[in-house]
Every structure is written in C-alpha cells, then in structure tokens.
C-alpha cells in the first residue's frame, strides 16, 4: 500500500514538475516552488521499494539512499515552507521558517541526523531501515529526520487552517488539506520516540506518516489546480476587457 501511494503521488508530482518547468524558466520568483515540487517528486520516488533498492545498490547497498531522501525532506520543507508562508501573506512566518531560527533548526537537525546515521552504520540495504529498528541509534536518526519538517509544519499549521477559511472554493480546500497534514507532521518524531519504549509504536508512525503525506500532497496538487483555474479566469477576463475597449 505504501508503494502504491508513493508511486501515485510521485507520478503526479513528476508531471507537475514538467508542467511548471517553462514558467520557472521565465519567472525567477517561481523557481523555488518548482524546486520544491522537484524534490518532493524525488522523495516520493525513493519511497517506492523497487526504486529505493535499485538506487541504493548503486551507492553500495548501505542505505545512503535513505539519508538522501531525508535530506530531500528537509530541503522540501525549507523551500515549500517559505512558499506556503508567503502564499498566505505571512512575512513573519517566512522569517521564522526561512530565517535565522529556521536555518539553525535545519542545520543542527541535518548534522545530528547525519551523525547518528554514520554511528548506526546499517549493514545492508533495507527499505525504511525496518530490520534495524531495534537499534536506538536508528530510532534517534528517524526522530531527527523529522525535526525540521516538524518545526515548519508546527509553525504553519494554524495560520494555514485560518487562511483556508478565508479562501474560497478549491483553493480553500487545498489549504485545509495541507493544514491538517501539517498538524500530523510534528507527531511523526514523537511516535518514533515511542519506539524506544515499545517497538509496536512503529505501527503508530505509519498511521501518522502516511496520512500526513497524503494530505499535504493532495493539498499541494489541489492548490496547483486552483491556481491554474484562477489564472485562466483572469486571462479570460482580461481578453474580454480588451475586446470591449477595442
């Protein structure tokens, strides 16, 4: 089921990357959003077992692919968090997630995540590092993997939910889906910490993580569709006004 969900959304975001490429090349302001879609597509593809194992085999079969995917997750929230804050007109939140505080959380989290991965040294390639989840270092690595994403999501969840009420139609629905997904993201590292007490918490992680991915990815996809509709409507109105003035 995880492969199916990841594969569907990876395909969707790959298509969005291709569609958005021309506008990103024309307008520098859209490059960051395009890069966020590109990284999200990569992370989702690496969540498909066949892709993960094939890629990791090329890198020596020691789960370097897992580390790369989590770096991608950090980068995705670094880029996407900034865009979300700006999309709801919150420069203050932009400065939090993309300023000094955000940079410190991202840098410290990425460094600690890398250090624990190196210290744990998983011996062979395994999707999700599941065979190694009895190792406290692996659990700590997983906790740190969601430190910065959890921070960004916690900052944006409530303002995004408030913005969804103020936005009409499909755009409001898109923001609502993302907001609910953001609420779940900070719970992922907490659930991982529970694995130190009881390995059974691994099930709780999946129950939180997959819905969070689905909700955020769906929200982003709906937002793209809504923006396209708004853009077409604006272009149509502009043509009508031009025809009337002629």
UniProtKB/TrEMBL annotation:
The keyword Transmembrane applies. The chain crosses the membrane at residues 6-22, 34-55, 67-89, 101-125, 137-157, 177-194, 200-226. Keywords: Membrane, Transmembrane, Transmembrane helix. It comes from the Bacteria. This is Uncharacterized protein. It comes from Paeniglutamicibacter terrestris.
